[in-house]
Amino acid sequence: MGLRYLLRNDILTACDDARAELKYQLTKQTDADSAETVDDGQELLDLLLIAQSACSKWFDLIDEKNVKEALFIVSKEG
Description:
By secondary structure, this protein is mainly alpha-helical. The chain has helices at residues 2-30, 42-60, 64-77.
């Protein structure tokens, strides 16, 4: 269970960092007085890939039996 919490924290941190990076890039893009150019988005992409990787690892820790059970329950509700 400890690894799941660490991965969850990695996901949340990467998403927060990506949100901040996007906000920064949008601010720089709309700031007409700024002589700086907007980055090509590589840092934002890297942060989103970190979040995606951690999320995939988190889902991989879920027992397949639990996934099948949850899908069965959802299919009965729909």
